[in-house]
Amino acid sequence: MLRRLLYTEERVRALFARMRSELHEMAARHASEQYRLRQELDEVRAQFDELRSIASARSRAETELDELRRLREIGRARAAQRDPMQLLQ
Fold it and tell me: Residue 63's closest CA among 52, 75, 74, 55?
């Protein structure tokens, strides 16, 4: 009984060549997608850094404002005239 070849050498080589070509196409697509995602990630990180610096500046400004208000109240208290008729505590 003779065995019939299902695939010839040329057919197998063509099949492997097509598979290799598809793998190269997929690798190129993945590389371009990875590059695009890396750019997007870099952009998001830059926006996050900017937001963090803005939030930090705001926090420092609020702290400075609180300190200025405290000093203003101290200045008002020192500048206030005391009623000499009122008892000291």
Answer: 55
- Output the pLDDT for position 39: 98
Q: Which CA distances in Å does 43 have to 31, 33, 80? A: 18, 15, 55
Rounded Cα gap, residues 10 and 89, in angstroms: 109
Handedness of CA 6, 9, 13, 18 (dihedral sign): negative
Span between the terminal Cα atoms of the chain, in Å: 122
In this prediction the pTM is 0.59
Tokens of 53: 């610096």
Upper half-sphere CA count for residue 89 (Cβ side, 13 Å):
0
Could you report the per-residue pLDDT of 8-26, keeping only the tens digit for each? Answer: 899 999 999 999 999 999 9
Please count the residues of the chain.
Answer: 89
